[in-house]
Amino acid sequence: MTSVRSARKDEHVQLVMESRREQPLRPNDFDDVELVHHALDGIDPARVDLATDVGPWRWAAPLLISGMTGGSESTGRINRALAIAARETGTPIASGSMSVVLDEPDTLATFRVLRDENPDGIVFANLGAERSPDDARRVVDLLGADGLQVHVNAAQETVMPEGSRGFDRWAANIEAIVDAVEVPVIVKEVGSGLSGRTLSRLHALGVRLADVAGRGGTDFAAVENARRAGRDYAYLAGWGQSAVCCLLDVPDPAPQVLASGGVRHPLDVVRALALGARAVSVAGAFLAVAVDGDEVATVAELRRWHEHLTAIHALVGAATPADLTTTDVLLHGRVLEFARLRGVDTGALARRSR
Ligand SMILES: Cc1cc2nc3c(=O)[nH]c(=O)nc-3n(C[C@H](O)[C@H](O)[C@H](O)COP(=O)(O)O)c2cc1C
Question: Which of 41, 118, 157, 226 has CB 3.0 to 4.6 Å from 87, enough for a Cys bridge?
Fold first, then answer.
């Protein structure tokens, strides 16, 4: 497993980890989302039920381990640790892009471990929007997947030295993939966000689930630039909108929206749920604990997130994730500016528990 693609998987992990080591809790737009504290609203944590309906599934909690790895030996070990944590905590999990498997079948085991370690769990395959409906069907079959994440990553492909550029085919391709596969499709970004306009277009294409994967966490424009000899695309770092801004921009009708991108801890999950996300997915923060393949540490980290999610729901007085959508939310700084420019009633958001 030493092809360019296989090596790229390892490089991505290495570069993401280097940037996380420099600043593990980098400030981002989630900091501009404040939940108003009401001192008498708290409830007994025993009353909190995190179960969440997403698409056709009932998830144990509004949390997903997002698509990251597979395709090389070391990323196979990461997938194993993540799969065990997913199994032990009932957390749905997605694979990294399975494009490599289609051309290099000997990499399958590094993805298949997600299903083998977690036979009864909810597992998603992952593929780029440029791949064919037949390819989409194949990766779903190969993984025994319950759903398919299709990623749209124009900024990443633009900066990636060996990136593809056929962006104008993506919309038609997504429509064909949705028609072709027998499982639900979740269209996702990889860190640049899905605008209101994009969510409207996806809905019109028949997509019923989308993950905004916004700016503020893993930054693939920066990661790919670090792989370029001249590092000449440095100025594209931070391209796109944050998950917070994307959530404020969701149109009607739209696919059911998951949020991700820069989720650093369980409070960010709660903030995203309060802004209307049905569930939240996390990549980089879970990679940081699974990177050495230590399943015991990874299980413990996932358990901690579940426990803290329950605790914060109780603190805010939300018995379910849906109850968070009536919590008072104050927006500050750049997020407030974005909300005003896009016509969001920020005053109503701040006083909605009345
Ligand atoms: C090492 C790494 C590899 C990734 N590979 C993929 C991928 O193959 N397919 C995909 O859709 N997203 C991929 N992502 C993007 C994540 O799914 C997620 O959308 C993005 O990292 C934003 O979340 P975060 O800020 O929590 O990391 C990857 C992320 C990381 C950290």
Answer: 118
Which residue ranges make up each domain of the chain?
4-350
Instruction: Measure the CA–CA gap between 96 and 70, rounded to whole angstroms.
Output: 6
Average pLDDT over residues 47-53: 98
pLDDT band, very low/low/confident/very high, at 33 (cuts 50, 70, 90): very high
Spacing of C-alpha 320 from chain mean position: 21
Q: What is the DSSP letter of 278?
A: S
Cα(119) to ligand 1 centroid in Å equals 23
Per-residue model confidence (pLDDT) at position 88: 98
pTM over 0.90: yes
Residue 317, CA distances (Å) to 128, 263, 303, 320, 351 in order: 40, 22, 21, 9, 16
What's the rounded Cα separation, in Å, for the pair 128 and 132? 9
Pick the atom of ligand 1 nearest to 189's CA: 19
Helices 266-274 and 295-316, interaxial angle, to 10°?
50
Nearest-atom index, ligand 1, CA of 151: 11
| 235/12 Cα distance (integer angstroms) | 19
Distance 66 CA to ligand 1 centre (A): 7
**Tokens found for residue 6:** 């296989």
Q: Using pLDDT thresholds of 50, 70 and 90, give the confidence band for residue 22.
A: confident
Mutation pick for ligand 1 pocket among 23, 63, 218 (CB with most ligand atoms within 8 Å): 218
Pick the CATH number of 4-350 from 3.20.20.70, 3.40.50.150, 3.40.630.30, 3.30.70.100: 3.20.20.70
C-alpha 199/C-alpha 186 separation (Å) is 12
pLDDT band per the 50, 70, 90 thresholds, residue 24: confident
The DSSP bridge pattern shows strands 93-94 and 123-128 to be parallel
d(CA 297, CA 302): 9
